[in-house]
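Subject: Interface between my chains keeps coming out wrong

I've been trying for a while to get a sensible model of this assembly. When I model each chain on its own everything looks fine, but I need the whole thing in one frame so I can look at the contacts. Pasting all components below, labels as-is. Any help appreciated, I'm running out of ideas.
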Amino acid sequence: VNDTYRVNASDIMHETIDGEVVIVNLDSGAYYAFDGSGEYIWNRLSDGGASAAQLVTELASHYASAAADIEPAVRHFLQQLLDEQLIVADDNAAAASTTAAGGPSGVFVAPQLNKYTDMEALLLADPIHEVEADGWPNLK
Amino acid sequence: MASPLISVIIPAYNCAKYLPEAIDSVLAQDYPRVELIVIDDGSSDDTPRVLAAYHDRLTSQRQANGGIASARNAGYRLASGDFIAFLDADDVFTPGRLRTQMAAFDADPALDCVQGFMEQFISPELPPQFGAGIRGKAVGVRAAPLASTTLIRRDAYRRVGPWNEALNIGVDMDWHSRLQESGIHYRLLQQVLLRRRIHGSNTNLRFAHEQSERLHVLKDILDRRRKAPADTAVNQGETTA
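Reply #2:
Try treating it as a single job with all components included. I did that and got this:
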């Protein structure tokens, strides 16, 4: 297992709106937003995919921090995304290396997933067509 | 004392095929005082002829096409009821539904708004496999805090405010989020109040490529609630049998 993940495009909708990522899980009706470095990690996962090790290396390099300080928060965050079925493990996901140049500045802030269920009934109420594996038109 | 008057508002756009069933389901309600208002939102089909056949049993008004929110708002401007209800032109009230909702108001005078469950069905002229391409459960019973199950006191409706005419598929979600924030007392009855038809031109199927509008409504909700004072409660309502 090389620990590589990509977004679960066929079961979610997501879009960056006014600089903030908003995600809907189409099966559960929950929606999500991020705090801290969550958005950076999400953008890496939605841009072809990334491994946990890569994300840790990139963030450690960007923030000139020790990988050991960052890794637990990143792994916890990835597990949350998996538990909420917003991402899937995919060893074939393109894991292109990148520098975190576009990432957030300042000091490392642990990624946080905020989950909201107050619109669940409405998000589940409307019939929508199944989509192919490449997902909804996920506009950036 | 006379029963309070209920205004039922149906926005109709090119739905002549299903509109009679919607109208009949309102006219057949056993609640004694119902005023039915249908807004023809610039239909190019037989909708005017359908409405003409019912001219003595409802109020209708035709407008240039403005979308479902605009048509519901136009209907409200004509409404004189103490309570307001909505029904989409392709859907059907269940028998006795308004009486059931009014009984909930009678039992709890503090209530402002009562919504309920719906049963989705594949329109009978379509093959049953029509539902195969629809995500999740195409048919069956589920919670439906939508316009078409809503019965709300007029003063509470005014506090929530009009349907957002800039929106299309996100209209009900936007309105419901403002209902949650309005501080009004509302309840979801675990009873089927609505039969919702799944057919070839459901707005939400037709505009599948516009699902992104829902994400924009959610972003607005997040922004609004983060800006609100910390003691502003988001009222999730309650669900009762």
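Reply #3:
Confirming on my end. Chain A touches chain B at residues 13-15, 17-18, 20, 22, 24, 26-27, 31, 33, 116, 118-119, 121-130, 136-137, 139 (CB under 8 Å).
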